[in-house]
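Encode chain A's predicted structure.
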Amino acid sequence: MEEKKEEKKEEKKENEKNGQLRNWAIFSGIAFQMGGTIFACAWVGKKLDEKYPSNKNWFTIGFVLFGVAASLYIVLKQLKSLNK
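Encoded structure for chain A:
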């Protein structure tokens, strides 16, 4: 009886450890995804500004803002699915 209780405690600790590692991996992946999305949008905006020059870098500004908004939308959608 005692051994079963100890096994359950060890199993519970191991499950908690695996859950924490899984969450860490998911959240770090989200950070890289956000960074990649914003970087890609900034790169596209910069290339368009080089091709169509103006007094300000409107394409870069617009695409970076779009990238931030899209990243936030995707992150919120992923967090919502994680909480289910």
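The chain has one domain: 2-82.
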